[in-house]
């Protein structure tokens, strides 16, 4: 018997990205970073550019943040803020090495006229916050355990006026929420249960009974670090198994190669912040 795939519909998105012009692995603040591994910056820029072109090719709008010398992780634009309903909850980085990135993001939002809420608590923007607009009327999922601190979850809820569900990350390889979980459309998510505490896994099962479940192989290939428009799922090309699962669920996987940026501990999603009006 043939099962008919559910039809998925894309929604146009607005994204923010930052070219890896100064990308390097000069310090190690997550288990993926190894300062002795050589980085090919030109290749990183090429791969990043392919990612940007892929998003534009899918009909999305991509804004660019100007990269700054001395901020090698600035390419991971997801970490600079979290935008919901036209409001921006600013980032406050855990590590000193990335602290100055927050001001660059702040300046961008200010110049573009977004409502900006400055944070008092440590949080790394969309690295640890995800938004599912049609789930329970609009739900923010928030990670803690490695970077973002729990008080920031409450602060984000006050700043954005949407319920925040706190989820505890327990595996240092999955130090940000966005390497373990992603929204695949306006209602549903995909995630790797092993990255979360047992209690947080129960919370996710309760809220998203129909979620696509990824395994450790998918997660280790940075497959969860994806961006979806509701139909097209842009993900790391090494995550072939997860691509198959998403295809079976009716989505269209769009693989991109980002091997150089993986050396910094990030992939597709880390390079992209979604600007939600
Ligand atoms: N080297 C960066 C860090 O450790 C990688 C950030 C990846 N970004 C993300 N959204 N997961 O902070």
From TrEMBL:
It is an enzyme of class 3 (hydrolase). It holds the Pfam family DDAH_eukar. The keyword Cell membrane does not apply. Gene3D superfamilies: L-arginine/glycine Amidinotransferase, Chain A. One of its GO terms (molecular function) is dimethylargininase activity. Keywords: Hydrolase. This is Dimethylargininase. Its EC number is 3.5.3.18.
